[in-house]
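Narrative summary of target 7.
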Amino acid sequence: MFFFIFFTFIVFADNAKVILKKETVYISKDKIYLGDIADFYNVNDDLFTELSTVYIKRAALPGYSVVVTKENVKNQLNKKYKTIEVLGPSSVKVVTEKVSVETKDIKKTVENYILENMPWKKEDVEIIIKDINENINTIDGNVLLKVRGEKIKGFKGNEIIPVEITVDGKFYRLIPVSALIKVTTDCLVAGQNIKIKETIYDKVILQKRDITYLPDDVITDIEMVKNKVARQAIANGSIILKNMLDTLPAFKRGDTVTVMVRRGGVTVETTGVSMDDGKEGGFVKVKLVTGKIIEGKVNYDGKVIIQ
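Modeled conformation, tokenized:
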């Protein structure tokens, strides 16, 4: 039985013929296989599948063509199928079909992404997308555009927005798009000259300003400056940045504070005397009623947390 099957395969392989197509061939992929440019004669199903998937060469760029010669096909077949005869024309022209992705669609993809993900109000933003030189040609298929936005943080100023082009679900090309995001929005501004160490909550106003090229720590919510003091002198009319401010201590050295000791799922509350001024998020040493000195982190509510 094995001999019969093996013998049958040899007969098919010995009598098999590859006939190159006479007309120009159109494909929608980046590689050319034998099945794209030829028909097969006297082959069984298994051999047909094998021959169809024999790699010939790279396809041309979308909209362009490449020539496959009979000699090229023979050379590829001789690696495994030395007895198969190749017939037909001396060469086949293979054209890669194209789809043109218009620049307006790329720009719209970038604009929509910015509008959907930025922290600003739509009316506060002007998006200027710099010219893309020309339409982008891709192989024919289901073309999708998507922004890779993992590294986009501030959504203002000059940004390079990478647009990914996929065809039939496979990555095809990445287009870097240069965009200027101009932001004019309400932010905190000094309403008077503010001295160092002064509280600022009652000395600032909300005002619409262009913050396009300012650092990302512009303050847009007046509630964020409660219990804040100026780290430096701030001139009247200056835009307030987070790095200009310090937090008022939640308590001072010598004050009695609440201490919460957390161990696993159990929390024990006690009191102690702070040995340092305590600012939210900072660490302080506390002398407990037992006389033991421990170090903990100051919580938003002024309690010292020991973990």
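Confidence is low (pLDDT under 50) at residues 1-12.
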